[in-house]
C-alpha cells in the first residue's frame, strides 16, 4: 500500500489503538454511549470498510456492524464472495449517538463536529491498516474520507481520491437499504451495493 500522510497522527504502540479509542473523550458522545466501538479486522487488510457510527446493538456489544445493518452487510458481502474476516471494518464515528424514545434509543446522524473530532481515530486506523482501497458506506463515511459532503446518489459506484491520496469507493449504507419501502428500489440498491463490494474485492492498485 502507498505511504499516506495524515495531518493528525495518533502515535501509540500497534495493538493499543482499540484501548485508546475506548478512553476517548474528544466529543460529548462518550457521555451517553455504553462504550466506544473500534474497528476490527486484520491489521494488514487490503480493504477497509467504513460505516457511519455504531448502532444500538453495536453500542451494547462493542463490535461494529453486528446489528440489523451489519447482518445485511454480511449477507450481501457473502453473496459476492467477500468474507468479513478478510477486511478491516470500522465507522467514521466510534460512539453511538441517539435520543431516547420510550424504551428505544433512536439513532441520530452525527454532526460535522463529531465526525471531525472522531477523524483522529479513523486516521489512526487508516494509518495502521494502510489499505489499498477504502469503501465508504453512506454519506457520513464519504464526507469523513473525502472531505466532500455532496449527496452520494451521484457519486455511488465511483472511486474518489480522498485525503492523503487514499482511494475511496463510495456506496450505499446497508441501513439505507433497510429504510427503503419500495421493493423495486430496495432490490436495485441492494444490487448496487453488492456490485460495489464485488468491485472492491477485485480492486488492484
Ligand atoms: N451502522 C453503522 O454505520 N455502523 C455500525 O457499526 C452499525 C450500523
From TrEMBL:
Gene source species: Roseobacter litoralis (strain ATCC 49566 / DSM 6996 / JCM 21268 / NBRC 15278 / OCh 149)
Protein name: Type-4 uracil-DNA glycosylase
Domain of life where this protein originates: Bacteria
Shown residues within the full chain: 269 to 473 of 477
Sequence ranges assigned to domain Uracil-DNA glycosylase-like in this UniProt record: 38-198
Similarity-based family: Belongs to the uracil-DNA glycosylase (UDG) superfamily. Type 4 (UDGa) family.
